[in-house]
Design brief:
about 210 residues, about 75% helix, mainly alpha, globular, about 0% strand
């Protein structure tokens, strides 16, 4: 892969790690184990993701995240715990894909990878905060299942077609920004509506 393709794959993996860190590591490790993700020789160290122990831990984490993410408020608690873990994991994934002989690119990859994972994590956590306001119990499972399918599908595309990875990374970043802005506005509107409904909205007085 060329540098653009490598950066594209790194960006895609980092952004998807903000949604599903363990699933991203598991799928990437499996792809490396079976040779579906060909890498340059200088990235041979990344084959550690294909280690059976790493795959085993990633599989356990994937299962735990799959279950926790389907339950209202448990998903938000899980997201809170992973507010540092996901960005760090995304940064390390991006760092591992860059040539270790070029410190400048390593720093850039680490910062962009961590920033991308933090961005997508923020979009996911904000989405769950809005969904948890819903009184019915099925929306959490529906949204979570959609995230599972989207993560798996986008990972498969990025791994199978590295030239598309940069497009996927850009689209994911733009989508995350749009979602965060839209949902924060929605949360503010919901809070304002609740305050008015509870009679907490400050009353204005007219001057005589």
């Amino acid at each position: 892969m060329g540098i653009v393709e490598i950066l594209g794959v790194a960006g895609s993996l980092s952004l998807l790690a903000g949604w599903r860190l363990y699933l991203t590591i598991l799928v990437t490790g499996i792809a490396m184990h079976f040779g579906w993700l060909p890498l340059p020789e200088h990235l041979a160290a990344l084959q550690i993701l294909a280690n059976p122990w790493v795959l085993g831990v990633a599989a356990v984490g994937t299962l735990a995240e799959f279950l926790a993410d389907k339950i209202a408020w448990v998903d938000s608690a899980w997201d809170t715990v992973h507010s540092i873990i996901r960005p760090l994991g995304g940064a390390l994934l991006a760092l591992a894909l860059v040539d270790s002989s070029d410190p400048a690119w390593q720093v850039i990859a680490f910062l962009l990878g961590g920033g991308g994972a933090l961005l997508s994590h923020g979009a996911k956590a904000t989405t769950r905060a809005v969904v948890n306001v819903s009184p019915e119990p099925f929306s959490n499972a529906a949204v979570s299942t959609g995230e599972d399918l989207a993560t798996g599908g986008l990972l498969a595309l990025a791994i199978a077609y590295p030239p598309l990875a940069i497009v996927i990374a850009i689209l994911l970043a733009v989508a995350a920004v749009v979602v965060i802005i839209a949902l924060r506005r929605l949360l503010r509107n919901i809070k304002a509506t609740l305050k008015r409904a509870l009679g907490d909205e400050p009353q204005t007085t007219l001057d005589a």
